[in-house]
TrEMBL record:
Segments crossing the lipid bilayer: none
GO biological process: organic acid phosphorylation
Family recorded in the similarity comment: Belongs to the glycerate kinase type-1 family.
Keywords, comma-separated and alphabetical: Kinase, Transferase
Species this protein is from: Microbacterium pygmaeum
PANTHER family linked to this entry: GLYCERATE KINASE (PTHR21599)
UniProt GO molecular function: glycerate kinase activity
The protein, known as: Glycerate kinase
Length: 370
């Protein structure tokens, strides 16, 4: 058999590449003669870099030191993808999660002061290298700065009524009165594609502050303050604040739209770039999964996209997940395994996720062999 492993990350435990490797180890114990193809998936959040680095031949990690969301230096990297017949010129992949992400301040959330400056510094490093195209994953943000941090790193200037630069983070939006984009760096030759699974607008009850602000530490008063600041910013930039995805990553989607980037569904774009359809077409079975497989998994998440590709190719698909919720639709799956069920509890499954993923790989190899 040829087995394609295309899981998403198990948030809070393992990245997609680690999940794929653990499943592969378990499968190979039962069926060592099978061909296993690793195609870890991502939707623009944590693990996007790992997915490209593992799945694309010739991909290279490019180290970079950036300013973290709390102002401290962060040792990060971006990924350089080689030119192809479909994409002339090299492509740079930059991930917000590893440069300005919430995991970098998980022990002390900074709702007013966290920012995306480091993400912008990594983008600038890729531009300095001379990439012809940029892919930017913007999931797992720590801030609600409207993208002012990333744009500042790229040459924009945001000032208060006295003409002084505003502070970084949501706090700075309290005083923003002018935006000067005249020194903003040019887009690379083949443009900038932003990967996101979020379609929220910048403002309103489904916007960046109201929906995602509490996850980043904003209390009720902070949400109102951030909403007002984002509205001030929206009045200064020539972008539709209600555009789908403008509210992604605390408004980073909005800022990148102002730069001229295009926002696209992350899972579909990643699948296309890593050649998932071609791999699936040659497969006997496809394994995908995520930390929580539930009723929302069919709404544009990576496993749903993987499953749709497999179904179109007539290839059976199975799921391994940290947990499989009662509202999850598993009727079209060839098999499914819950790590919580294998381990006896969600806590046990999260404590040693790799172990239970290997066991899931063994179980799926056994059940799908016939």
């Amino acid at each position: 058999m040829t087995v394609v492993l295309a899981p998403d990350s198990f948030k809070g435990t393992l990245g997609a590449a680690e999940v794929a490797a653990a499943l592969a180890d378990g499968w190979a114990e039962v069926r060592p003669a099978d061909t296993i193809v690793l195609k870890p998936m991502a939707d623009g959040g944590e693990g996007t870099l790992d997915a490209f680095a593992l799945a694309v031949a010739g991909a290279r990690r490019m180290p970079v030191t950036v300013t973290g969301p709390d102002g401290d230096p962060v040792e990060a990297s971006w990924v350089l993808l080689p030119a192809t017949s479909d994409s002339p010129g090299e492509t740079g992949v930059v991930e917000l999660a590893s440069t300005s992400g919430i995991e970098l301040v998980a022990d002390r959330l900074l709702p007013d002061d966290a920012h995306t400056l480091g993400f912008g510094e990594a983008v600038a490093a890729a531009l300095d290298h001379g990439v012809a195209r940029l892919l930017l994953g913007i999931g797992s943000s720590s801030s609600t700065d409207g993208g002012t941090g990333v744009l500042t790193a790229l040459g924009a200037r945001f000032t208060d009524a006295a003409g002084a630069p505003i502070p970084l983070g949501a706090r700075g939006l309290d005083a923003v009165a002018a935006a000067d984009l005249s020194a903003l760096r040019a887009l690379p030759e083949h443009g900038v594609i932003v990967l996101t699974d979020v379609t929220n607008p910048l403002l309103g009850p489904t916007g960046a502050a109201a929906v995602f602000g509490p996850q980043k530490g904003l209390d009720a008063a902070g949400v109102l303050r951030a909403e007002a600041g984002l509205a001030r910013l929206a009045a200064l930039l020539p972008v539709d604040a209600q555009a789908p995805g403008a509210g992604a990553a605390g408004g980073t989607g909005f800022g990148l739209l102002a730069w001229g980037a295009a926002l696209v569904p992350g899972a579909a774009a990643v699948a296309d770039i890593i050649g998932l359809s071609d791999a699936v077409a040659a497969a006997s079975v496809v394994l995908t999964g995520e930390g929580s497989y539930d009723g929302q998994s069919a709404a544009g998440k990576a496993p749903a996209h993987v499953a749709s590709i497999a179904r179109a190719a007539g290839v059976p698909v199975a799921v391994a997940a940290g947990r499989i919720a009662e509202d999850a639709d598993t009727s079209a799956l060839a098999a499914s395994v819950s790590l919580t069920d294998l381990a006896g509890s969600s806590a046990a499954a999260m404590t040693d996720t790799a172990r239970w993923l290997r066991e899931a790989g063994r179980r799926l190899a056994t059940s799908l062999s016939g």
